Structures are given as C-alpha cells and as structure tokens.
Amino acid sequence: MTPKWLNEGNREYIDVHSNLLGYVDVLNFFEEIERDFDVLHYCNGSNAGGRFVFQILNHEFIIDLAQIVNSKIQKEHILLEVMAGDGSLTRFLKPHIRAEMIATDSKRNVHDIPYPKWIVEYEALDAIDRFRPDAVLLSWEPLLSSTGLAICESGIPLIWIGDPEKCAPHSGIFDNEHKKLGNRFSLGRSDEFAEREFRSDIYLFNWH
C-alpha cells in the first residue's frame, strides 16, 4: 500500500483504525511510518483521526480472534471487553462473533480518548460483577494495572492481548497457567516493523 496523506495542509497520516485494513497493507504502512515518521508518535494521536493506538488491528487478526471466541462462547453468552478505550476492537470484532459483546471502560480519559456513547462506563471488575460474562477480553492492559491478574484468578476465561513487557509486566499474571497463541497477524505499537520484531500476541487464561 502506498501510504496516503490526508489533510494536505498539515500532512497527517491516515487513521489506521478508521476502517479495517488487511495485514499486508497495515504492515507496509507501519514500515513507512517507522522509516519516515515515528511509530510511537503516530500511535500517540499524531494521525488523521487523533487516535491512540496500542494493538494495531487488521482483518486477519480480527478473523483469528473471532475464531477463538466462537470456539468457546455460544450465541446466548456474553463476551465482555474491559478497558476498551475507543472501542475499536469491539467495533471490528462484533460482526464476526456469535456471542453478545459488550464494551466497557472507566472513561477516565487519561489519553483524551473520544469515547463512543455505546461504550458502557464501568471500572473493569465492576463491569464483570454487573454483566457476569462468559469470557473477558482485555487488550493492552495499562502498565501498573493488576486487573488482568484479578480476572485470571477469578477463574473467568480471559483473552489477554498485548506485549508482556509493556502491559502490566509486574502484575504476576504470567505466573498463572496460560497459552500463548503465537498469532502471526498480531501487531503492536512496540514492534519493530522493518526488522520483523513482533512483541504483541494473544494469550488465553482459564481457557479449558
């Protein structure tokens, strides 16, 4: 994909999450960002949508994630995303899964995120108490958070997405039994794209 520029007056790169793009296009796009701009600067809101980006989503990643969800959760069940941010993951995943999906966030707006109205305002553990989900989805847990660990220790099936070195690395969550999927379409803001050093992945806890 030849990177497109929007808003010629200030030459901002496209918002990679305005629509769901294919893996190859997204990978090529971030190689360009890495070479001619700065990946973290881009992911911290310096893009045409002013969007903060943590897990970099693409079509193949979403389809793989949907298959994981559909293998575990039936139509009448609930998948709850906590700490959902601007809801991009739920927005792209929801059309591909059978379960009801609910996105929640505390909406503290640390990153000046424009939260859609359909994201329900709840702290993560309070949301679990309220909705009693059959599984929880947590993507790029904040650095000092222990929420993922608490969910894991509760016994609820958890899909944890992120870079273990950047997402709550000292919480102890990985001391619990888990499965690393080695998803080849997983991309994150801490990756090195030209060198093909990919650090984010999908991890399953209590997924029996």
Explain this structure.
By secondary structure, this protein is an alpha/beta fold. It has a domain at 68-183 and 195-205: Rossmann fold. 26% of the residues lie in helices and 19% in strands. The chain has helices spanning 23-36, 39-43, 59-72, 88-93, 124-131, 147-154; strands at residues 5-6, 12-13, 55-56, 78-82, 100-105, 120-121, 135-139, 158-162, 178-180, 187-188, 201-205. Strand 7, helix 6 and strand 8 form a beta-alpha-beta unit. The termini are far apart.
Can you give me a brief rundown of this structure?
This protein is α/β, with parallel strands linked by helices and 208 residues long.
Tag the structure with descriptive keywords:
208 residues, two-stranded antiparallel sheet, 19% strand, Rossmann fold
Mean pLDDT: 92
The biggest beta sheet is recorded as: 7 strands, mixed
Instruction: Supply the CATH class of the domain at 68-183 and 195-205.
Output: Alpha Beta
Number of strands: 11
The percent range for strand residues is: 15-25%
CATH topology of the domain at 68-183 and 195-205, by name, is Rossmann fold
- For the termini, the CA-CA separation is 40 Å
Uncertain segments of ≥5 residues (pLDDT<50)?
Answer: none
What order do the helices and strands come in, and which of them pair?
Layout: E1 5-6, E2 12-13, H1 23-36, H2 39-43, E3 55-56, H3 59-72, E4 78-82, H4 88-93, E5 100-105, E6 120-121, H5 124-131, E7 135-139, H6 147-154, E8 158-162, E9 178-180, E10 187-188, E11 201-205
Parallel strand pairs: 4-5, 4-7, 5-6, 7-8
Antiparallel strand pairs: 1-2, 3-10, 8-11, 9-11
